[in-house]
Queue: 3 jobs
Job 1
Amino acid sequence: MIGPASGRASLHHGKPYSPVTTVPRRPPADVIVPKVALDSISLSYKTTSGERLLALDNISLEVKAGEFLCIVGPSGCGKSTLLHLIAGLHPQTSGNVFVDGTPVNGPGTDRILIFQELGLFPWLTVGGNIEFGMKMKNIGKAEREEKVQYYLRLVHLSKFRDSYIHQLSGGMRQRVALARALATDPDVLLMDEPFAALDAQTRDLLHDELERIWAETGRTIIFVTHNVREAVRLGDRVALLTFRPGQVKQEFPVNLPRPRHMEQPDVARTAGTILDCLRTEINKSLEAEYADEKNR
Ligand SMILES: Nc1ncnc2c1ncn2[C@@H]1O[C@H](COP(=O)(O)OP(=O)(O)OP(=O)(O)O)[C@@H](O)[C@H]1O
Ligand SMILES: [Mg+2]
């Protein structure tokens, strides 16, 4: 059975004994620092009319090292915004984002965001795309070559190393994006609806591959999706966000054995429970949209 690689979690260590400190204060050895922690995060955007729109409201969430967390919620509830904050691409209005206990103040090579649009470079080959991030990190040629070969094998694209992006299928492009992200050695993979545009068979294959890669590499994954069954298929836990402003409405641990399949009855049952909860939020979002239309 595949499980989170909790062994990669770092531990708090107390300061060494000092004669000045009469009672050394040591945090208990079993206090594990979460890989990612969101502490009372709120974020408001300035709209074009000059008003402030509260997108995220007081979100607190912890993700363990090696955990696979899925986030679901109605459209516009702030899921992408949340990933952007963790990636350090946008500052929150209040609260803190921590990675390994350290506040996030900007982008870092320990985290990588895979957008739905992928952002692959059409002028580079598959190999060139995978190598790109490593070049930016000034990794030497020999190590780059070794890693390109390793990640091409991992995503089953060794034969396509010299192909250009337009010569690949949608599923293959997703795998290149995944290999390129993994090659920069991030601890945390942030994935924003990466498989939404794929056909069901390709998506199922990529689920299997992502799960295998996650198990082999022990990365922490935060995965946003509209598809509740996909969230249950992949996640150790599913966090459900409310309609705007996004708050964590409920968290659902998924204890079903792996590997799972989207069509499995127990996956469908668990997804059904989450969907009941999500429907209330989707209805609120639709009501708000209709109200906006009427007021125009
Ligand atoms: N740069 C921005 N400026 C102003 N408002 C923004 C900006 N980015 C997002 N928003 C607003 O913040 C809210 C949350 O947007 P976000 O893209 O995070 O939602 P989402 O949950 O990812 O939606 P979807 O499921 O449709 O992708 C939306 O109301 C959106 O209009
Ligand atoms: Mg989004």
Job 2
Amino acid sequence: MKHSATSSEPAVKPRSRAAWPLSEPTLAYFPDARFVSGRDLDAGVMPPQGSGGSVVDAPQDLPESHGHVPVLLERCVELLAPALTRHAPDGSGAVLIDATLGAGGHSERFLTQFPGLRLIGLDRDPDALAIAGRRLERFGDRVQLVHTRYDGIVDALTETGLPATGSVDGVLFDLGVSSMQLDRPERGFSYAQDAPLDMRMDSEASLTAAEILNTYDRGALTDILRRFGEEKFASRIAGFVVERRARSPLQRTSELVEIIYDAIPIPARRTGGHPAKRTFQALRIAVNAELESLSAAVPAALAALRPGGRIVVMAYQSLEDRIVKTAFAAATASRSPEGLPVELPGYGPEFTAVTRGAERADADEIDRNPRSAPVRLRAIEREDIR
Ligand SMILES: C[S@@+](CC[C@H](N)C(=O)[O-])C[C@H]1O[C@@H](n2cnc3c(N)ncnc32)[C@H](O)[C@@H]1O
């Protein structure tokens, strides 16, 4: 397997599970703060999962089993199979981009089911690449992994020897954070674990949640919490952050959780899930420039598809789903000048919808895999309009 990474592996970090540090008065307000509820899964809390084994060439403390159950796996295979088997039933001659490789769960299934398929796996997280690399090693040179943000798809294709347009048969996006990222408290994604205020998906990137919280002015913080977290008390929380950091810089997730509890009025704390959920989501989106990255990646992925090629995107929160929905609506719209009674030849839509609107996970899947509860899956196919 070829593994292309833009930089070196991250340092080994100790696997820690810090004791919950909230003060007793805070816990009296929020006795459930120690626990995880199903509706909070998308915002950075996962039940603890076992770690097992170690990974060659990867930090030794990474869980190889990941505890990650790929979301809507059967449906993804069903939706992409027609595009991947156009040349041959075993996928020979077809290329699939897994733009969010994660632990490699989806990729492993595609490579197993289609023994001729070539897969290009992207992830911005070097730990994920190391874990997935190990998992997919047995598929040899059918797999190429690239350390990049998914909006770097054009460069990734070039690096793997493919043209940036019209060269792949399928693209899969399974957005958001992975179980592996959530399961490592020291990365700071979870408000249920005390950890440094980090939240970087790429441990080699420079911007952290601590830097945002300690250096952005109140207006900028309010804007982040409002736009990316749809937090009603954005301005109040931002004000409390600014006041608190004047005493000493914020360093830990537990400090931020306490500030959020103090800032949100008591009656409002009891509704809408964990009070820290929206703020943590907002910071994670800002730290990782998630929406900018997705807005640039979707058009690049569409351009990469050959006629008959398909793209499947799974989004877990409304801001990302809106970006996908808008891009897919534009791609499946007629390009004929408005007002013409007929479609001009060659000006029809470039893509057709494969799913009707957004598909959701059914109750069985949500039971088996609570992470699938918020998912919205959309798929479209490139038309053959030569
Ligand atoms: C939900 S996980 C994918 C899980 C994967 N489908 C599996 O079955 O194991 C999402 C992955 O996407 C990665 N990711 C998120 N945003 C990204 C971006 N802008 N560019 C590249 N990778 C990204 C994360 O680092 C994470 O590993």
Job 3
Amino acid sequence: MDTARRNDGAMYECLLFDMDDTLYPLSTGLNLACRKNIQDYMLEHLHMEESQVPKMCLDLYKEYGTTMAGLKALDYEFDNDDFHAYVHGRLPYDKLKPDLVLRNLLLSMPQRKIIFTNADQTHAVEVLKRLGLEECFEGIICFETLNPPKQVNNESDSRILCKPSVEAIEAAIRIADVDPKKTIFFDDSARNIASGKVAGLHTVIVGCSDLVPGADYALRSIHNIKEALPELWEAEECDGHQVIKSPAVETMVQA
Ligand SMILES: [Mg+2]
């Protein structure tokens, strides 16, 4: 029995966390505010027809993973940093409060923990700071990680790599240098979860109580993680070895 528990607990070596609407609830309103800012950007900077903007924003998001990726695929020309500064720069970050419960949960888990977000680094760092979670993750895989300047500036390929493409998830697995069979992926997006499963990850849909296709677990809130996955803590009890935690959040770059 002891051996079985040991195998169970050591099953997971790494936890990949989406950030927005996964580490904090949708009810903060950041998501809505972000969408409004994207639509304003499409109007003001890309001079699109006002009546078409809301539908196009949503259609591109559905088709390409992010509206930004869709705009690039349609050959709209704009600076990625300008776009991110515009849509995230005016977000109501004061709605995000330090989450000590989540912080303690994360710090008590022995596995490696990495953020995997489609957002840019500035936004990711700001959100983690506001939530008081900066020390909980060894690194951040974000827009800049998956889309380094060299690739973005290549005119023949302005394609943006982002979730839910399986290719983006496989890139994150490679950059984090993890075994997908020993990694759990947490995300609030059903399509990201479906792709995560295709990439071979264990998956947890966050923010709803019902399983979605490709999800192994469903958590209404990330705060329920210990009730749903107690084996994550058993690993520490069984193995007895300490995992060294990096004190600072760093952006992981592709080697
Ligand atoms: Mg999300």
